[in-house]
Amino acid sequence: MRTLLLIVDNGDEQRVASSHPTLIAMLEALTDTLEDSTRKGDEAGVAEHSDDHQSCESREKGQWNKQERKQKIKIEKAAAMAASTGRTPEIRKDVVFNKWVIFSPARARRPSDFKSHSPVNPNPQTSYSSSCPFCAGNERDCAPEIFRIPDSSSSDWKVRVIQNLYPALKRPEHHIPDPSPNSNPLVLSGIGFHEVVIETPNHSLRLSDLSPPEIGAVLLACKKRIQQLDDGSVNYVQVFKNHGASAGASLNHSHSQLMGLPLVPPTVSARLDSMKEHFDRTGKCCLCEIRAVELLIDESSHFFSIVPFAASYPFEIWVVPREHSSSFHEIDIETAIDLGRLLKIMLMKLSQQLNDPPFNFMIHTCPFQKMLQKS
After folding, report:
1. What is the pLDDT of residues 146-202, one digit of tens each?
2. pLDDT at residue number 82
3. Taxonomically, which superkingdom (predicted)?
């Protein structure tokens, strides 16, 4: 079986799927490369502005403490607003369509950059926005940070993974508890993880504007976080990105999301069962068989992109690894950068040919091994 990256140009229906995480050594090696590529330009800027920086240190320290207090109040307020509804998140089963749906009161209170489905300036040409919590310099306006790349707090970050200030799932205090045998089988407690991957510190850049190594760093950050969640507390992790208001994005700044779930979504189980049935019947991998010339869009050293034969959405694209790999966490630096290169091309094609349309993309992968062993 293979991991599958799916890009969907469809802003009317949000679909998410999943993925898996990364080795610290890989991330450090990759970020060293990224730092070397920008160090010369940075050194010139630092030398020029060092005197100004020293004169502002004392003032910035006072502002920093003020921002810290402000952020603490903001986080406490968000938690209090969610609690004031008297409801906690729930995961309810739709028995008609055999799917699980998350009901979360906190999500209704999240802010939005988009006042309509057609924002006046969807990609403002400014590297910083004082009102954007994801911009470099506004870190204290975000929910708590989980990690950053590079991991040193003394250097500028390239990618940050943070908690979601308005999560769809409630973070567990310890491990996610197993359902009680006497509980309602159609309702699960909405316990899990919902986090944000800030893909760039620059407010105006989109994922397609980043270089292949920079996109690779984003993919490796997702991999690292999912590996951290593979500790018995969740059964499946979904990685997805919403671009544009009608695709589900609430903030302009380029970011993707992770959700650690206490269950394996039925759509994932159905996909695995279907591929296994095809292999048992034919002895062949169905993803290998669909790589027809008439469906091929582009290819790289480790991946190829196609239009699926039975596409469910307009302009649907699949990015598939050449080698059989069922888990996204098996990706390394070389393949992450190679995937970043092909993903960049696909996103640029969508943007240029369709005038920057809203889209969703998601990473399909296997559940954690403990779930495969149970099945």
Report:
1. 999 998 876 799 999 999 999 999 998 766 666 555 578 888 889 999 999 999 999
2. 52
3. Eukaryota
- What is the per-residue pLDDT for 34? 39
User: Of 253, 255, 329, 364, which is the active-site residue?
Assistant: 255
Task: Name every residue whose Cβ is closer than 8 Å to that of residue 313 and which is 6 or more positions away in sequence.
Answer: 8, 9, 10
pLDDT at 43: 42
pTM exceeds cut of 0.85: no
**What token pair was written down for 333?**
């630096």
Whether 255 sits among the annotated catalytic residues: the reply is yes
